[in-house]
Amino acid sequence: MVGTVPVGGGAPVAVQTMTKTETANIEATMAQILTVADAGADIVRVAVPREQDAEALRTIVAASPIPIIADIHFNHTLALKAIAAGAHCVRLNPGNIGGPEKVAEVTALAEQTGTPLRVGVNSGSLPRHLRQLEYDNPVEALVTAAIETVELMESLNFTNFKVSMKSTSVPNTIASNRLLAERIPYPLHLGVTEAGTKWSGSLKSAVGLGTLLADGIGDTIRISLSTFHAEEEVKVAWEILKALKLRERGPVLIACPTCGRLQFDMDTVVAEVEQRLEAYEDPVEVSVLGCAVNGIGEARHADFGITGAKDMGMIYSKGEPLKKVPTERLVDELFKEIDRYYAAGRKVERDEQAAAEARAWLAENEDDTQMTPERIAALEAAAAENDEAAAEVLEEMLAVSPQGEQVGSVTLDEAVSPVAGRRFSRS
Length: 427
Ligand code: SF4
What we know:
The protein has 427 residues and is α/β, with parallel strands linked by helices.
C-alpha cells in the first residue's frame, strides 16, 4: 500500500506523476498536487533534495488528497526525515545513498513506521562493477543491478518495496522489465526516463509502457514529459490505460481518420467535442464520423455520435439515428442529447418523428458501394478470421444498394496481406 493505494498483487495499475515545483514552496506544490489529483493521479512524488523540502513534507502530506512519495537521492538523512514527516513512500536508489549501512538505517525506520520504499536503478548510474557488462549487454546490466538491489533489501529483512529500472531507451526498458518480472516477485514501477516533449515523450511512453502493460507487467506508471504541467503526464498515462482497457476514466472519443469523402470541418469539431467531454466523468463513448457514406458503420456501439455532411449532419445513439441538424449546430445538439441522457437517468430519449427524418437523411447520404477505410478494415478483419466471415461481410455490404441496383463486383485478391492475410480489391 502507498497510503490508501494498493500496489501490485492484481490491484489496478496506479497512475503516478511528479510535481515540478520546489517542494518547500508549499503553496505552489499543493496547487500542483490538487491539479494532478483532479486529472486522475493516484499517487504523486515530490523532490526532496534539501532540508527545507523535507520540512515542508509534513504540511503537504496532511493537506494532499492523494499519497505522497518523497524522492530522495544521495542523502539518507533526508530519507529518514521524510519517513518521520509521514511520507507515504520514499523513493531511493540504494546505489547512490552512501553504502549498505545507510540503506539499513532507512529500512529499519521504514519497517518501524510501515512505510514502503521504491528502490531501483537508472541506466545512467549503474554500479562500477557492472560497467563492462553494461557495455556488452546493457539490458542484463540493468537487470543485474536491480536484482542486487533487491538482494540487499532482502538481506536487511525488508520486503515492503516496489522496484523500478529506468532507461532512456524504449527497447531496453521493455527487455529489462520483461526479464526482471520473471526473476522477482515484487511490484514494478514503469517509466521511460527523460522521454521528451509532450508529443515525442507520449509516444515513447505509449510504446514502451504499453507493450509491458499489455504483457501484464507493471503496477504503477509515470509518464515523464518535459513540461511544467504535470497533469499532462497524468492524462497520457490514462490514455494508455484506457487504450489497453486496463482502467476506465472519463469519456472515450472515437473519430474517423478522415479521407477524401470528408464533408465538413472535422478538425474543429473533434477538438471541440474532446474539450467539452472533459467536463464528464462517466466513460460515455462518443464517435465523430466525417461523412455519412458508411452509414453509422463501425460506430454503432458508441453511446452517442455525429456524422456530418456539407450543411446537415445527424446525431445517433447506439447505432440508431436521433435527429438531423444543421452542421453548425451539430456539437451543441450532441451535448444537449448527452445531457438529456444523464438527466433521464442514463436513458436515451428518442423523438420518433425526428428519428424518422434522420433515418431518411441517412438513407439518402449512405452509399453501400463505396470501399471506405472502415469497410476495407472490416473486410480485412473478417478475412483474418476466415474466408467465410469475409464473404458474409461482403454480402452484407454489397447485396443491397439503396437504389436496389447491381453495384459492381468485389473480388478477393488472394495475395497475402501483411496485415490480415488477404487483400481485397474492387474490379
Ligand atoms: S469514409 Fe470513413 S474516414 Fe472517410 S470521411 Fe467518411 S467516415 Fe471518415
